[in-house]
Design brief:
alpha/beta, 14 helices, 9-stranded mixed sheet, 17 strands, 8-stranded mixed sheet
């Protein structure tokens, strides 16, 4: 059954007011048709509208329905696979281009929030927490790597320092990134959508795309209408389905689960995270958490390959919450939900072109809050004829999953089990 509204998440329950947007009916023409009203689609649409393009966005459900309105809300820099892998894979020049963009997403978010007055509980500061000595060595190497690409807002945390920012005894150290941070993700994308519409942009909700007719002027079809455009941007990510099978073969939807507690007292909240930073640990199947604007603990993790929706999310995530913060053992969980992100085999994002005028971006592999904002700017650049940064991403290898779509889930799950065992053994 087709879902028609947001999931029952804390974000949906605390979303800023947003207008109902009518479904597409009839035929229209535009410069750019964007498929998907999440961070990638809305970011690209807003950049293009600022530059005078006529843009129509088609969204299957509602703005921010997918990963953009369900994620942990953390501004995490770089890519899921770090810049050193890109250096080894592509060489110095492309690594430089991609490395220069690794920390751009957070800056774009802050620019958008300031320029358009978006109310999304923006807070600065993110912590990467080490569970063992190997994790700490990785963070030390990561700090040196990131500093080479211009991120100078980093501080290594020893065992004493990390307890000053995270009140738990499970970490051996960490790294603080003050260019990281956290936001209410649904309110951010809703605010960006409102900014786009204020510039004359058009959004049609409840308008799932049924097919794309390729050609010199591609036509995007829905059940009750069509849009003819000069360019199409495909930004459906994990919620794209099989609209473009050539993209689906190179990626795999994965589910991540999030729970949110009842509001905590000011004293308890500040004792857990005294500086109000967000945190993610360094495990392969990581936990991530932060405080909301109204002092709830938002805690996520629990990757499910193939994007199945677990029947009892609280039972899956709550033990990790209690292990991290025993102080919360009796706290009530008010919200629990799942959201899909798109994993690529390389864990690097995929950006490219189909034919001459259909562009896509997908596969942020868990780093979507920041990368989608970079992707939106880069897609807008290439439509204006500035292709250098787009070409750097397009040159990244887009591997199909071994064994095809049938075996991608079990193969990936075996890999995850291997890394999970390494985490448990501290190797």
């Amino acid at each position: 059954m087709l879902e028609t509204q947001h999931t029952t998440s804390y974000y949906a329950a605390s979303a800023n007011p947003s207008p109902a947007r009518p479904a597409l009916q009839g035929s229209s023409e535009t410069d750019v048709c964007v498929i998907g009203a999440g961070f990638t689609g809305i970011s690209a649409a807003l950049h293009l509208a600022e530059q005078g393009f006529r843009v129509t966005v088609l969204e299957a459900v509602q703005v921010g329905f997918g990963a953009s309105g369900r994620n942990g809300g953390q501004i995490v820099n770089s890519y899921s696979r770090d810049i050193d892998v890109i250096e080894r894979t592509l060489g110095a020049e492309q690594a430089r281009l991609l490395g220069d963009m690794a920390f751009e997403g957070g800056r774009i978010i802050r620019e958008r929030v300031a320029r358009y007055g978006i109310d999304c509980d923006l807070k600065d500061g993110g912590v990467f927490a080490a569970l063992n000595g190997n994790h700490m060595k990785h963070l030390e190497a990561q700090k040196k790597l990131w500093e080479r690409y211009g991120n100078t807002q980093l501080e290594l945390l020893d065992e004493r320092r990390i307890r000053e920012v995270v009140n738990t005894d499970i970490y051996t150290g960490g790294m603080l990134d003050m260019s990281g941070g956290h936001i209410h993700p649904l309110n951010l994308v809703l605010g960006e959508a409102a900014a786009f519409e204020s510039l004359g942009g058009i959004i049609h909700e409840h308008s799932p795309v049924t097919r794309i007719d390729q050609g010199s002027r591609p036509v995007v079809h829905t059940a009750e209408g069509q849009v003819k455009a000069r360019y199409v941007i495909v930004a459906g990510n994990a919620y794209l389905g099989n609209l473009l099978p050539q993209l689906a073969a190179k990626s795999m939807p994965c589910g991540t689960q999030v729970i949110t507690t009842e509001p905590l007292s000011e004293e308890l909240a500040s004792s857990l995270l005294p500086q109000d930073y967000c945190v993610e640990d360094c495990a392969y199947l990581l936990d991530y958490y932060r405080l909301s604007g109204d002092r709830r603990m938002i805690f996520g993790g629990g990757v499910v390959y193939g994007a199945r929706d677990p029947s009892n999310i609280e039972a899956l995530i709550r033990p990790n919450l209690i292990k991290t913060f025993p102080q919360l053992k009796d706290v009530k969980i008010d919200y629990a939900w799942t959201g899909n992100f798109l994993l690529t085999l390389s864990r690097l994002p995929q950006m490219g072109r189909i034919g001459n005028n259909i562009y896509y971006s997908q596969g942020c592999s868990g780093h979507g809050v920041t990368f989608t904002h970079v992707a939106g700017r880069v897609l807008a650049e290439v439509l204006r004829g500035q292709a250098e940064r787009f070409d750097a991403f397009a040159a990244l290898p887009h591997y199909p999953f071994p064994g095809g779509r049938l075996f991608r889930i079990p193969f990936t799950a075996i890999g995850a089990w291997y890394y999970q065992m390494r985490d448990k053994l501290g190797i």
